[in-house]
Amino acid sequence: MVHVLGSRVLLRPTDPERSRAFYGEALGLAVYREFGTGPERGTVYFLGGGFLEVSGRSEEPPAPGLQLWLQVGDARAAHKELVAAGVRVLRAPVKEPWGLVEMWIADPDGVRIAVVEVPEDHPLRYRP
Fold it and tell me: pTM score, two decimals?
């Protein structure tokens, strides 16, 4: 068995500066660390219990199946902030049949991002 000590999602955008502006400024993700120099330098952002590394460059957008899941305290408040920041909202917050409030946005390369609120009464919050 592989003993995993840490992990992160690696994202190779088509336009690194545009993606750093999206994740760092529009979404306001905190920077964990940066490395290298120039436009293809690496920036690692905090994602709650994980990390997102935006580094390098790709000629093609990331695989269409790649999606991110970000949990927030209030999806409707996040919606207002993201709209004000010019983020492309694919779907405004909706309470789903499974009880989560979900909104969908997209990064500059079209990576779909679920912005999810776990309501107080949802089983994910229940601790017996």
Answer: 0.89
